[in-house]
Write a structure and sequence with these properties.
It catalyses: UDP-N-acetyl-alpha-D-muramate + L-alanyl-gamma-D-glutamyl-meso-2,6-diaminopimelate + ATP = UDP-N-acetyl-alpha-D-muramoyl-L-alanyl-gamma-D-glutamyl-meso-2,6-diaminopimelate + ADP + phosphate + H(+). The structure is a single chain. With about 450 residues, the chain is an alpha/beta fold. It folds into three domains: about 90 residues, Rossmann fold (3-Layer(aba) Sandwich); about 200 residues, 3-Layer(aba) Sandwich (UDP-N-acetylmuramoyl-L-alanine:D-glutamate ligase); about 130 residues, Mur ligase, C-terminal domain (Protein-Tyrosine Phosphatase, Chain A), CATH 3.90.190.20. Helices cover about 30% and strands about 25% of the residues. Strands 8-7-9-6-12-13-14 form a seven-stranded mixed sheet, sandwiched between helices. Strand 15 and strand 16 form a beta hairpin. Helix 13 crosses helix 14.
Length: about 450
């Protein structure tokens, strides 16, 4: 009988990916989560994974051989306490992945504060297009594959390398378990204020990762990024290629909305990209993916061809519908930098049409008020700003709205927010709804109400 693995927090994208890969390896897989809900629950059930709702010790009636503990689990969780008291073998998702999947693979890891999901999706698609059939585990659903993870049947494995902590018993960043041969560092800013006290704390974790890249590996990073430069100055043992510089990777003749550009390497044109994505930040993401794929043996011209058919990950400038000629987009942006870049890209694309921004400040860093002094300037390109204010905040969204001016307003209930947006919207508008969570179904409610 196959070994039985039970996963705590199985409906998270990362842990759901672990479940899918474990199933592919032949394990019997079951899992628990606080709420078992689509789309991950549907994806897992279709794979034959047994799902249980809630963290109840009776879910262990058929005791597993191993429990994989998600990083959202903490002491006091009834199933965690049951595992500890009965000495059931347990591990973290990243550690299980290293021990069972990554050990003999060429790991291509995509790290950074922003753009990890999109860039890793691009890279996986480029390798797939080049017929290298990579394995991958991505913190979103790459639409060229319609699944967030697979084992793959080649040496190559693409992973979204997150700096968040590993588990309640392992406070190192998740990515230190991956030991990449090819490492992308997209950017580096302060985030995750719930686990990091300063940018230097984050830099230290990134340098732990850099220490693991072998001398015959490759690190790709943007040039002249202060926090990255400071981190690499702590010690570097691996060849490094930089973007935005004539000495390595550059984009030239970029269309005003980022939908087309030339790719240069060492000052020489290698190819052109024409695609559906928008924004200079996605051009940067593409250069990183192209450079990483080249390290794995994919010619730049092939990468450019692949990106022409790349479909962006769900929740990244995703057009949900156009009721009454009002364009409604879903975007994962939840950090001032990401918000600013998303809105700037949209502005370049839509010209003088009205741009409406709707934000749920949901991340732990946002809730703590870490970005309250820089949030207002992120909405520079929006004609109108609506921000949801959670009653649990210890800072005032209204203060941020006053900094923005009369273009902005704070709203304390989803219903009030919904009515305000609907009453303001008119044909030709573009509404970007930004949240890193479900936003209480706001997207669907907005589409339905605009359709009425």
């Amino acid at each position: 009988m196959s070994k039985h693995i039970h996963i705590l927090g199985v409906c998270g994208t990362f842990m759901g990916g672990i479940a899918a890969i474990a199933k592919e390896l032949g394990y019997r897989v079951s899992g628990s989560d606080a709420n078992v809900y689509p789309p991950m629950s549907t994806q897992l059930q279709e794979l034959g994974i047994e799902l249980k709702s809630g963290y109840l010790p009776e879910h262990f009636a058929d005791e597993p051989d191993l429990v994989i503990v998600g990083n959202a689990m903490s002491r006091g969780n009834p199933m965690v306490e049951y595992v500890l008291e009965r000495n059931i073998p347990y591990t973290s998702g990243p550690q299980w992945l290293q021990d069972n999947v990554l050990q003999q693979r060429w790991v291509l890891a995509v790290s950074g504060t922003h753009g990890k999901t999109t860039t890793s999706s691009m890279l996986a698609w480029i390798l797939e297009y080049a017929k290298l059939t990579p394995g991958f585990l991505i913190g979103g659903v790459p639409q060229n594959f319609q699944q967030s993870a697979r084992l793959g049947n080649s040496p190559f494995f693409v992973i979204e390398a997150d700096e968040y902590d590993t588990a309640f018993f392992d406070k190192r960043s998740k990515f230190v378990h991956y030991r990449p041969r090819t490492l992308v560092i997209n950017n580096l800013e302060f985030d995750h204020a719930d686990i990091f006290d300063s940018i230097s704390d984050i830099q230290r974790q990134f340098h732990h990762l850099v220490r693991m890249v072998p001398g015959n590996g490759l690190i790709l990073a943007p040039a002249q990024e202060t926090y990255i430069d400071e981190m690499l100055a702590l010690g570097l043992w691996t060849p490094t290629e930089f973007s935005r510089t004539a000495k390595a990777w550059q984009a030239n003749n970029i269309h005003r909305d980022g939908s087309a550009f030339e790719v240069l390497f060492n000052g020489e044109k290698q190819g052109e990209v024409h695609w559906d994505l928008l924004g200079d930040f996605n051009v940067d993401n593409a250069l990183m993916a192209i450079g990483a794929a080249r390290h794995a043996g994919v010619p730049v011209t092939v990468s450019c061809e692949a990106l022409a058919s790349f479909v962006n990950t769900k929740r990244r400038q995703e057009l949900l519908g156009t009721p009454k000629d009002i364009h409604v987009y879903d975007d994962f942006a939840h950090h001032p930098t990401a918000i600013s870049k998303t809105l700037s890209a949209m502005r370049s694309h839509i010209g003088s049409n009205r741009l409406i921004a709707v934000l749920e400040p949901r991340s732990n860093t946002m809730k703590a008020g870490v970005h309250k002094d820089t949030l207002a300037q992120a909405f520079h390109d929006a004609d109108r700003v609506f921000i949801f204010e959670d009653s649990a905040f210890d800072w005032s969204v209204s203060d941020v709205c006053q900094q923005i001016d009369k273009r902005a307003s704070a709203h304390h209930s989803i219903e009030e927010l919904l009515n305000s947006v609907v009453n303001y919207a008119q044909p030709g508008d573009h509404i970007v709804v930004m949240s890193n969570g479900g936003f209480a179904g706001f997207h669907t409610k907005l589409l339905n109400k605009l359709t009425d």
